[in-house]
Amino acid sequence: MAGLERVTPEASVDEVVEILERDGGVIVEDFVDAGTLDALWTDLGPALDAQGYGEDWYNGTKTRRVSSVFGRTDKLTPVVTQPHYLGAARAIMQKPIPMYIGKNRVEMTPTIQISGTQLIQIHPGQGKQPLHRDDALHLRTHPGPTSRVQLMLAMSEFTAANGGTLVIPGSHHWDDERAPSTDEAFPTSMPAGSGLIWLGGVYHSGGKNTSDKPRTGLTIALDLGNLRQEENQYLALSREAVLKYPEEVRRLLGYDRCPPGLGWVEMDDPYKLLADPGDDVGERLAS
Ligand SMILES: O=C(O)CCC(=O)C(=O)O
Question: Model-level pTM?
Fold first, then answer.
């Protein structure tokens, strides 16, 4: 295999799902339009410029990382709801789970949620990050059902020379004893505005930047709604920041109930409480 397949914006969600299930990753060309990309740079660029390099070998000592991304811009709706990304994530992860409640056989479909978000700017001189699986965060075993579908939006061009994400196609099918090797990894090349989508069980890493310019990516992870969020969105984002987004995104940010019953507040849908800024459970309980 010569690296990941790429699809154009005309590809169907089914096509993207098929490629993801087979190869574990896919590149979607023209994932966002130029206007969206410019707006993201305007809102997020200054935070990156103000950020120092990381301090450890894993996050990179020539790499700048900025998190709480949904709190820094209100322009991420077209990114997280991009049909190939959100559609594929829903199709892959929101599979009905059968169960009995008494003698009734019912099926429960889990929600999905935004987990970790980061801007990752790899500067010249940064070495390759160790290959890893992001669903290791949830101690998943492999091969197994997918619990994460992740996006890397190219905010600048990604090349083999500037640290374009290294991906081992098909590695989500491997068991937990097989170690990843750099020889099997392919660098992601894509112009700014394209997106790499990959499954949580796929070995990948940031690449080595031997060029003379930084490479900037924006990553968003969508996880199953019954797992703990990697980034604590409830504390990372103010209520005001969340309310700038439409209902679908607010629910994705975690203000939702995952069937059969995770995440409720006062036995009710947390979304309702969020959407009514006058309602405060603390005050209600005190009165
Ligand atoms: O920056 C990249 O291309 C990937 C980074 C990554 O996989 C990570 O930091 O966990």
Answer: 0.96
